[in-house]
Write a structure and sequence with these properties.
Helix content is 39%, strand content 16%. The protein has 695 residues and is an alpha/beta fold. It is found in: Cell membrane.
Length: 695
């Protein structure tokens, strides 16, 4: 018996079905069966489902003789299911990476309850991802979105309680979704998005207006007439009013009709002692459409006023901050012993600025260092490191008075560099992908960059830190300005690769639960401008299995994708280290790096340890972003070591010894000579002596 039966009803979704099924097949957790119910779809859904069933024995197809609707299709899937838990996935939605492992872990920890409720996120056809708005932490679970696809239900519980989807019509999942919560003896919650609900531009119920949406009243009428109706009542009213107010679901002509039905529902099932929540529900209780419209208009006016006041307050605060800042620029004295640092658009204390700050404390203790961080990342500031919040009064004060400015990206808010200030741009990686003005030929990756502002920012620099001659040449061309001089000192963040001793490395490995004698492989892919979210291009659990018990895989997702890689506890030899504070520690702890186009490869080369390039989408990446050299050419100086373009090739390299050979060592040596000539463990010292001590 499988742990999960994932049931996918399919009707006229041929453009989405493959992605949906792939999102299940790509799960590192593998104890599942996938049941695709072909609801007599007139397009290619049946053929697609059959193709997947032919490729994977865990996929089965149930074919209905005639189109019956999504409710009947799901019921047919349940009848064919054999798993311990039922999961429902719409054919145009996605199961997020690591979802099944996370659900399995949560169920196990809760003792396999009747029902598990999990979170989801939402996206539209522009790939704009938003949170669900559901609160999985507290409150009544009846308040959560009543859908089939945000819960796991024990199959024996489902069968024993006679749960079923409404066979015909929309809102077919409202009744079983609520009944599962009302009737469950045991229930747990997982505050993690496991499903991505995709709103389609055409063909979806959510934006097809009409009287079909009146069915929501019928569904809640059935529920309110049964056990638990009084508890459900306020949530039922809120859901019905949400449909009434949704312009995508109802035309103006439809709204009075739904209001009349909703008022009848309210009158028939209102619990004794229930007090209407606000003027809209009061109008519903009174059955007055005119009063409801009046309440709507009043609420719209209040919301508009609040929004206007909020905008005005924000603008006023910004003007006051800028006015105070410009006053400081005119009147405040420059502090020759104050330095302001920033890293990765104010995400915390890291990279070259952090290494320079630490060395300045040692060699130039008279320099007070202050980091700029956003309010969202204050928790990432190490204890004892002074900081200011971006946009605050104190931020603008230090920006106006600090003599030294050090950043690896840019300072927020559009500051004005004053005479006497010295700005060191450290950058945050050796460029493989096109940067600066070179990006103009690759608009897919620019995301609305103003290149005139890029040049204005460049004109503020006094020094541009360089890790190697390649970087110096590129920065000079893509950030052209007579204002700055190159500082060819190496990367301060790389000093630790030369100064960290064996005992410290053993300590780091112990913290990461890497046993003595185990090989640690760091998998650290970069982000792609054409990809939303962390979607590894290999089955990580299968990869870890193939490498055997003597290998641990450390997975580091790019920081653009959030605080974790979505692995949960998907495999005992996979470690999700995305949230680890220091990528340098991960490099020190590992025996080899597997990456694609990340600039981490240039830093890792300082360690003189094997680097394996895994580039399954190299052609797409080069076309989308452009690169300065051919990473896969095999030429000394271009390629850091072994190369793989498929999961099978990568697995074979690390399993059979091809990752570390005499040939790959020669490539790595040439790569180090080209890209690490200045790194020797003293880069931060050189920067501090040049910038703060004038040596």
């Amino acid at each position: 018996m499988s742990r999960f039966s994932v049931i996918v009803p399919a009707f006229r979704v041929q453009g989405y079905l493959r992605e949906s099924l792939d999102s299940v097949l790509a799960q590192p957790f593998t104890d599942w069966e996938l049941i695709v119910v072909d609801d007599a779809s007139p397009d290619a859904c049946g053929a697609i489902a059959a193709e997947y069933a032919g490729r994977d024995a865990r996929v089965r197809v149930v074919t209905l003789p005639e189109h019956s609707g999504v409710g009947a299709a799901r019921n047919a899937g349940v009848a064919a299911a054999g798993g311990t838990y039922l999961l429902f996935l719409d054919a145009d939605d996605l199961l997020l990476p690591g979802a099944l492992a996370a659900i399995d872990t949560a169920l196990t920890e809760a003792g396999d309850p009747d029902v598990l409720l999990h979170d989801h996120d939402r996206t539209d056809w522009w790939d704009t991802v938003r949170a669900s708005g559901d609160d999985l932490a507290d409150g009544d679970p009846l308040a959560l979105t009543p859908a089939a696809w945000n819960r796991a239900v024990r199959r024996d519980f489902w069968t024993a309680r006679g749960l079923a989807f409404t066979p015909q019509g929309p809102y077919e999942d409202v009744v079983p979704a609520h009944r599962a919560v009302l009737e469950a003896d045991t229930l747990t919650r997982l505050p993690r998005a496991c499903v991505r609900w995709r709103r389609r531009r055409a063909g979806g119920l959510a934006h097809t207006p009409g009287e079909r949406h009146f069915a929501v009243v019928e569904r809640y009428g059935e529920l309110l007439a049964g056990p638990g109706g009084a508890r459900l009542f306020p949530y039922a009213v809120a859901r019905v009013l949400a449909v009434l107010d949704d312009q995508d679901r109802l035309t103006p002509a439809d709204r009075p009709g739904l209001f009349r039905l909703a008022a009848e529902l309210h009158r028939a099932h209102r619990p004794a002692g229930h007090t209407p929540d606000g003027p809209r529900e009061q109008a519903l209780a009174d059955g007055s459409w005119a009063a409801y419209q009046k309440a709507e208009k009043s609420e719209e006016r209040r919301n508009a006023l609040r929004a206007r006041l909020k905008r005005q307050k924000k603008k006023l605060r910004s003007r006051l901050m800028k006015a105070a800042y410009h006053a400081d620029l005119r009147t405040a004295r420059l502090d020759p012993e104050l330095a302001v640092y920033g890293a990765y658009w104010n995400r915390g204390v890291s990279c070259n600025p952090a290494a320079v700050h630490a060395k300045a404390r040692e060699l130039a203790p008279h320099i007070e260092g202050v980091f700029v961080v956003s309010s969202k990342h204050v928790d990432k500031v190490p204890q004892g490191v002074p900081y200011v919040i971006e946009g605050s009064r104190r931020y603008w004060q230090v920006m106006a008075t600090a003599k030294y400015l050090v950043n690896n990206s840019s300072f927020p808010g559009g500051f004005t560099k004053r005479a006497g200030q010295v700005y060191l741009q450290t950058h945050h990686g050796t460029p493989l992908k096109k940067m600066g003005l070179d990006q103009r030929r690759y608009p897919a990756g620019t995301h609305g960059i103003s290149f005139s502002k890029v040049l204005d920012h460049t004109d503020q620099w006094d020094y541009s830190l360089s890790a190697n001659p390649h970087s110096t040449e590129v920065w000079e061309r893509v950030y052209p300005s007579d204002a700055y001089a190159p500082l060819e000192a190496g990367y301060p963040r790389n000093d630790v690769y030369f100064t960290t001793g064996a005992e410290e490395i053993r300590r780091i490995r112990r913290e990461l639960d890497i046993a003595d004698g185990q090989r640690a492989v760091l998998y650290a892919p970069t982000h792609r401008d054409y990809q939303k979210g962390f979607l590894p291009r290999l089955d990580l659990a299968r990869f870890a299995d193939a490498l055997g018990d003597d290998t641990v895989v450390l997975v580091r997702a790019h920081y653009f994708y959030g605080a974790d890689a979505g692995l949960a506890d998907s495999h005992p030899r996979l470690r999700d280290v995305t949230a680890h504070d220091r990528v340098e520690d991960l490099c020190l702890a590992s025996d080899a790096l597997v990456t694609d186009y990340s600039s981490l490869m240039f830093d890792y080369a300082c360690l003189d340890r094997p680097v394996v390039t895994y580039a399954p989408d190299w052609d797409a990446y080069r076309m989308a972003r452009g690169t300065y050299f051919d990473l896969l050419s095999g030429r000394p100086g271009d390629t850091p070591g072994a190369v793989a373009t498929t999961e099978e090739e990568l697995t074979a390299l690390l399993r059979d010894g091809g990752w570390d050979t005499e040939a790959t060592t020669e490539l790595r040596t040439a790569f180090r000579e080209r890209f690490c000539p200045y790194d020797d463990g003293h880069a931060a010292e050189r920067v501090v002596r040049k910038l703060f001590l004038g040596e």
